[in-house]
Amino acid sequence: TNMYVSSKFANSKSMTQVFVRLFSSTPIHSKICVIGGGAAGINVTAQLIGRGINPGQIRIFEPSKTHYYQPGQTMIAGGLVQSDYVERPESKLIPKGVSWTQQAVLKFDPDNNTIYTEDDQKYTYNSVSYTHLRAHETPEHLVCRLLLEKK
């Protein structure tokens, strides 16, 4: 089948997005998916690596480019540290070799071990760790609060 893309997308970021959407019907598989790149997600990932899991088998889903160390915020309020103490680039905290998906997870399908992200990509997994329930998430996400679910 021939596919044509409008010339208005040529030489633009949109062209990349068109191709990603055209060819993203095949799920990306990771042995272990960690939902959330906060302190808990980074800690779980580091512990898994420390227990001998190959970092290349782990994927972290975290849309934020900046990590805010929430427990440190109480130290700011107490005058013990400056505000920059709690703010770090997320890229510096993701363990080496771990895949980082910078998209929000929109939906889980635990019956089929599938995760759907905001860019319409599907990811499959063997085990998932849902490490932190964010304030902006809705009640239906509560059922997805899984901790290293194994099949």
Describe the fold and architecture.
- The chain has 151 residues and is of the alpha/beta class.
- Helix content is 19%, strand content 28%.
- It contains three helices and nine strands; from the N terminus they run αβαββαββββββ.
- The chain has helices spanning 13-23, 39-50, 72-77; strands spanning 28-35, 58-61, 66-68, 87-89, 99-101, 105-109, 114-117, 122-130, 147-149.
- Strands 1, 2, 5, 6, 7, 8 and 9 form a seven-stranded mixed β-sheet that branches.
- It is elongated, with a radius of gyration of 18 Å.
- The N and C termini lie far apart (39 Å).
Summarize this structure briefly.
The protein has 151 residues and is an alpha/beta fold.
Q: Give the SSE order as H and E letters.
A: HEHEEHEEEEEE
Please state the structural category: alpha/beta
N-end to C-end Cα span: 39 Å
Please state the overall shape, judged from the principal axes of the Cα atoms. Answer: elongated
Biggest sheet features: 7 strands, mixed
**Rg (C-alpha, Å):** 18 Å
Query: What percentage of amino acids are in beta strands?
Result: 25-35%
Unreliable spans: 1-18, 133-151
Q: How many distinct helices?
A: 3
Mean pLDDT value: 76
Helix proportion range: 10-25%
Task: Name a few traits of the molecule.
single chain, 151 residues, alpha/beta, 7-stranded mixed β-sheet, two-stranded antiparallel ribbon, 3 helices, elongated, disordered N terminus
